[in-house]
Amino acid sequence: MSSRFRRGRAPLVWRVCLRTVLRPGLVPVAVVLAVWAVLPYFDHLPVYKLPHLTQVASELWHLAVSGTIFGALGDSLSRLVIAFVIGATLGVALGVAVALSRALNDFLMPLVAFFNAIAGIAWIPLAIVWFGFGSGPVLFVIANNVFFIVLYNTLLGAEGIPRVMYDAVRTLGGDRRRTIVREVLVPGAMVGVLGGLRTGLAFAWRALVAVEMIAASNGLGFMSIQASRVFDGSTVVSVILVIGVVWILMDRLLLRPVEALTVRRWGMMGGADL
Amino acid sequence: MVGLDTATLPRVGAGRSRSAWFWARASSLVKLTVPFVFLVAVWQMSALVLGLSNYLYPRPALVLRTFGVLVAHGVLLSYTETSMWRWFVGVGVGTGVAIPVALALSFYRPFARMMFPLINFFTAIVELAWIPLFVLWFGYGFKVIVLSIAYVTFFPVLANTMSGIGQIPKASVQAAQTLGANRWQVALHVLLPGSLPGSVTGVRTGAGYGFRSLIGAEMIAAQSGLGYMIFESRANQLTQRTVAGMITIGVLWLLVDRLYLRPIEKATVERWGLLRRAR
Amino acid sequence: MPVVGSVAAKPAGGSLEVNDVCHEYVRAGDKTAVIALGPVSLQVSAGEFLCLLGPSGCGKSTLLMIIAGLLPPTRGTVAVDAVPVTGPSRERGVVFQDYALLPWKTVRSNVALGPRLAGASRREANQIADEYLELVGMPQAGDRYPHELSGGMRQRAAVARTLAAKPKVLLMDEPFAAVDAQTRGVLQEELVGIWARTAQTVVFVTHSVEEAALLADRVVVMSSAPGRVQEEFPVTLPHQVRFSRESAPRVAEVAASLLASVRVAQPRQSRQVASWSG
Ligand SMILES: Nc1ncnc2c1ncn2[C@@H]1O[C@H](COP(=O)(O)OP(=O)(O)OP(=O)(O)O)[C@@H](O)[C@H]1O
Ligand SMILES: [Mg+2]
Q1: How many CB atoms lie within 10 A of CB B63?
Q2: Does C57 contact ligand 1 (Cβ within 6 A)?
Q3: Which of B1, B5, B20 sits opposite C32 (nearest CB)?
Q4: CA of B6, nearest ligand number
Q5: Whose alpha carbon is nearest atom 11 of ligand 1?
């Protein structure tokens, strides 16, 4: 009772801060951090295997102040953006073109499924053969990966449009191909396209880390594998944390708003994931 | 209104139906083969036109011969075995941990809500990013790979199982309770079977992630397996082996997914599922 | 010819001729054919209101799709004003049994689609759309998306969309099946009103003998699958008086004779089941 009274009196800013800090969801996070913090007192793991919380924190601080982490992040993100845009644009464009023709669609679908099955990452060796070490293989592998995922999902999305939608537009006077594409095919395939972009981005991000570990000489993946080679556990953990945070930001700032504005609003996507 | 049973509908050519079935099968087989024949043709032609060396752009015939060599020496089979075993164990471990956790979290919803941010954070961390740390823990090999596959399988299984449980109508739980079921009986008779379609979907998704992860992890942190093979062959200038390995990887995944995972998902979802249809 | 204007404008009906139309569906799996519609011939004169009655699965929707030009008949021909039908066009508007609203468009944009495709500007089209939404009794729903509507509202939106395109021939597949009795009464009267003004030709599929008796100039009862024309009933009662209380007994009389004919059309098996459940 008294605490509520006191909180009622507190200045607004303070209250807002309290409310954000005292989210129940932060409790488990705090527990994990606490366990991590006290672990060194009970356990005798070598530091390189499990760096202390304080070490990682100071490492992160150091990486941030020196700008190293931002440099690596910049390298990684710029590759991701370039390759993603190329792959996604080609995937959607080809998907819509192919979906216009039933025969072409049926012809290409098995091939697309097959290339989707060759995990994007499996192209790394071939990409190195073709482009040498550096940015080349990274861009190729990611664009290739995104392309097939987006293409596949666009085709699935287009296949999922009920025939009666086309019929409705045709009986309303939409007889030109362009009208059908604009009114039915593109918006109807949007569920698939957005799903594809989302999956594509997720896979691209995963592939990015892997390719950079194997074939690049800068970027987050490289930084982490390099640190592991010299038993620098705190850098490895720092990179892991950065990778998690960056993906959450991409998801919240990019993917969800786009979905909320389109397919969710149209009631074409049910359910909630974690 | 009472619908007509389709069995009572008149059918033209019902007597031909067996041969019709055969032709339908044959034509779908042709429809599946033709695109791949076309792909190989394009591959061969482009190799001729581009005139690149076999190192840069191995010809189909060479890759085919390489297949023969790899099979004859038993390399392909043993590496496939190694990889699939790692994958199998990884998916098994991930699933085995995820399902009990999902059940437990669904039991204590407020607790689950508390856990979501933490789970979300770990979901967001690419499993391959853990590999350098896992390598520090275990060195190269089996454990690292299995761990990264288990890690990446865990989250979709967890999420899908929980959403499967979430879709169980409240009435089923209440029905069981009015029949005198206690908490554990509700879990056993309602929640567990009800979550199955979700879990199966999750396992299929997770297995797919796990497969990609397998290849990646084997390139980074293994001395055997298909991922290792395609990567090492490149270093030895045997690009044809890389390509043969890539094809093996693709075919392998398609076989596993289409012959096992998809039918299983379809069967469970159609039997127990409420809302969704398997793709 | 742009078909833009207010509700009052006259698209004037076309005469419809269906000659010996049959349809067989080829089943996707084993490629066997299913006869869905027996040879059917119909003459519908310009401006006539025709109701199609028949047991479920007898091919009413199939026939409608064939008239719309969305489904090529296996045999036979369809012609509007003596011009053979070869494909869909805006002169034959369809209200689909499952609404077929485009989920990515608001209700207003759905209704405005016809005028838009006929060349109206966005503002004109939206204005027309609002008029028709008002007409079907949902003037506030324009900004909503179809998934946010009830089944009955979706059906009304679909009716508004088809009307707004001002077709010569209106093909309606159980358009009021999901609407509550009260709204249905209003919509039926509204539809007859529009039809009287525009003189459109209407082919209206329904399961309800009362509805057929209320709306039709002529009722065609189809036999069970594969559907053929079993019987035809001209309804002579003038349209202006049908909705009045006094003519209720006479409408009921027509409905009763329709019901007798439909009973015969039902396949025996399902008649039995129906009587159990009733
Ligand atoms: N795509 C299809 N493939 C195979 N058979 C079909 C297909 N569509 C309809 N049929 C069959 O054709 C027959 C006629 O179907 P239709 O939809 O025209 O019936 P209906 O008279 O409109 O029925 P309802 O009153 O239930 O709407 C049915 O027996 C149905 O099973
Ligand atoms: Mg029908």
Answers
A1: 22
A2: yes
A3: B20
A4: 1
A5: C36
Q: How far is the CA of C61 from the centre of ligand 1 (A)?
A: 7
- Spell out the domain ranges in chain C: 9-91+168-185+195-276
The predicted structure's pLDDT at residue C73:
92
- Residue B162 C-alpha to ligand 1 middle, in angstroms? 39
pLDDT digits (tens, 9 = 90+) for B73-100: 999 999 999 999 999 999 999 999 999 8
Record the tokens describing residue B220, joined without a space.
């980074």
Measured in whole angstroms, how far is the alpha carbon of residue A171 from the centre of its chain? Answer: 41
User: Residue A124: what residue type?
Assistant: I
**How far apart are the C-alpha atoms of C258 and C252, rounded to whole Å?**
10
pLDDT tens-digit map of A249-259: 888 888 888 87
Return the CATH superfamily for domain C9-91+168-185+195-276. P-loop containing nucleotide triphosphate hydrolases (3.40.50.300)
Q: What is the pLDDT of residues C18-71, one digit of tens each?
A: 999 999 988 766 667 888 888 999 999 999 999 999 888 888 999 999 999 888
Nearest one of C83, C80, C92, C12 to C47, comparing CA atoms? C12
In angstroms, what separates the C-alpha of A4 from chain B's closest C-alpha?
23
Q: What is the four-CA torsion angle of A83, A86, A88, A89, rounded to 10 degrees?
A: 170
Which DSSP category does C85 fall into? P
Average pLDDT over every residue of A69-76: 92
Distance (angstroms) between ligand 1 centre and the Cα of B6 equals: 10
Phi, psi of C221 (to 5 degrees): -95, 130
Query: What DSSP assignment string belongs to A63-108?
Result: HHHHTHHHHHHHHHHHHHHHHHHHHHHHHHHHHHHHHT-HHHHHHH
pTM for the whole structure: 0.78
**The two structure tokens encoding residue A1:** 């009772």
Q: Do A268 and C147 touch (CB under 8 A)?
A: yes
Amino acid A2: pLDDT: 42
CB contact under 8 A, C269 and B14: no
Residue contact B12–C35, C-beta within 8 A: yes
Give the chain C residue whose CA is nearest to the CA of B8: C225
Domain map (residue ranges) of chain A: 55-273
Task: Specify the CATH architecture of the domain A55-273.
Answer: Orthogonal Bundle (1.10)
Complex confidence, ipTM: 0.81
